[in-house]
Design brief:
The chain is an all-alpha fold. It contains 20 helices and no strands.
Length: about 425
């Protein structure tokens, strides 16, 4: 009953529009005061311990790297290369949208960075080519979810910290599922292109492809440096984030000379603001998760799920439904911090590898970025495209179908996720 009070307060605050971090911290504080739990100093220590983690250093550096790439013109070069590579296909700019997101995913690891930076370029290009703005927003929103699946990935860093799982293995596990997501979205674009008779945006010209590749070559080296360095053991995921920042600054300041001091300061302040929000959510969610653990809620939830059926596939379906619903209402970092201690023991009991479960969880929560009422990517793209939020929701809905199908495939065919980390690490 007391735990029910905790959740009632949390969701009540969220319904009134209170920010997620404050809602988590506030509901936890009220619960602690009502039940005479440890003094405020102990709570403060718990919050500090929640963010006192070396792997979490990757968060501000990957955010900074993504912001630097969007500001220094790296994103635009990637888009132009993708245009030369697949722009000749029917509905070419839709395919370019997906292809550019795959490349950018190997640099930033954040869906919102993809939507806000690369998405602005993609939507403008599609509008100039007379594509329907709704279609442009839909494919941009859906393709941005690839960013946190293909390494590097900010949500997987958070999951790895909370679950005590190798972040390197999580990164390796996300690569093939991310490619499968991209292929499914390109099939959806091809379907719309044939149905609506979209044009071929430009002819395939080898000289244009070669020249655009030459201009984007150093930018394309970013994912090679990040992913190659991690998988080869040259540096840890945290050190890879630092390397990504250093490389982006080198390109912006020395090679392209597009990164001025004014722009760099603006990017730095944006990064500080975003990082502060993320870590505030992590700290507040760690208190909430500690209360749940102290009251043995994970054990009770595991018992309920495991008693629902003796068939693992049914329990996996239930877990996916829970994650999909939570993703609609809760910010990704908070959801991971709270739900991992609850759901991971159930997954382990079913014989699911924690790395495999991490990819399932992150993909589920990425779909939450495309659904109201939270739908952070939708809010960003509504602002970028200057169209109503409701129209963004309707335009994105068809692209949820291939992503849900990929989620089912990844859930029930573990080899798609586990083949690469098994090959590299085990």
């Amino acid at each position: 009953m007391e735990i029910a009070f905790l959740f009632v307060i949390l969701f009540g605050l969220l319904l009134f529009g209170v920010p997620v971090a404050i809602a988590l911290a506030g509901s936890s504080a009220l619960y602690i005061l009502a039940n005479g739990m440890p003094p405020p100093m102990v709570v403060a220590h718990r919050m500090i311990n929640g963010v006192d983690s070396f792997p979490l250093l990757a968060v501000p550096f990957f955010i900074l790297a993504g912001n630097l790439m969007n500001t220094a013109g790296i994103t635009e070069r990637i888009f132009n290369f993708a245009l030369a590579l697949v722009g000749w296909m029917r509905g070419g700019l839709g395919h370019v949208n997906v292809g550019a997101s795959v490349i950018f995913a190997g640099m930033s690891g954040a869906a919102v960075a993809d939507a806000g930076g690369l998405g602005a370029i993609e939507i403008k290009a599609m509008r100039d080519a007379k594509y329907d703005p709704g279609f442009a927003v839909g494919v941009t929103a859906a393709s941005s979810t690839i960013g946190p699946i293909i390494p590097p990935s900010l949500p997987m860093v958070i999951y790895g910290v909370v679950a005590g799982t190798s972040i390197g293995q999580l990164f390796a596990a996300g690569f093939i599922p991310g490619i499968v997501m991209a292929l499914s979205l390109m099939l959806m674009v091809a379907y719309f292109a044939r149905r609506r008779n979209f044009p071929r945006d430009q002819p395939f010209v080898m000289s244009v492809l070669v020249s655009s590749f030459g201009r984007a070559f150093l930018s394309l080296m970013t994912p090679v440096i990040i992913v190659g360095g991690i998988l080869s053991g040259a540096f840890t995921p945290t050190e890879a984030a630092v390397a990504a920042c250093a490389w982006a600054m080198f390109l912006g300041l020395v090679v392209y000379r597009t990164l001025t001091m004014r722009r760099f300061l603006r990017v730095t302040f944006d990064t500080i603001e975003t990082t502060a929000v993320v870590l505030f959510v992590v700290g507040a969610a760690s208190i909430f998760a500690w209360i749940l653990t102290s009251n043995r809620v994970p054990e009770a939830a595991a018992g309920m799920l495991l008693s629902a059926s003796d068939r693992p596939w049914i329990i996996l379906l239930l877990i996916n439904l829970i994650l999909l619903v939570v993703g609609c209402f809760m910010e990704t970092v908070a959801a991971i911090t709270i739900l991992v201690p609850v759901l991971l023991p159930v997954a382990v009991e079913l014989g699911i590898d924690p790395v495999h479960f991490g990819v399932i969880m992150v993909l589920n929560l990425m779909l939450g970025l495309l659904t109201p009422p939270v739908g952070m990517v939708l809010y960003v793209l509504a602002r970028v495209a200057k169209i109503p939020f409701e129209r963004c929701v309707v335009a994105t809905a068809p692209f949820l179908l291939p992503l849900v199908l990929v989620l089912g495939l990844i859930t029930f065919v573990p080899a798609i996720t586990m083949w690469l980390p098994t090959l590299i690490y085990r």
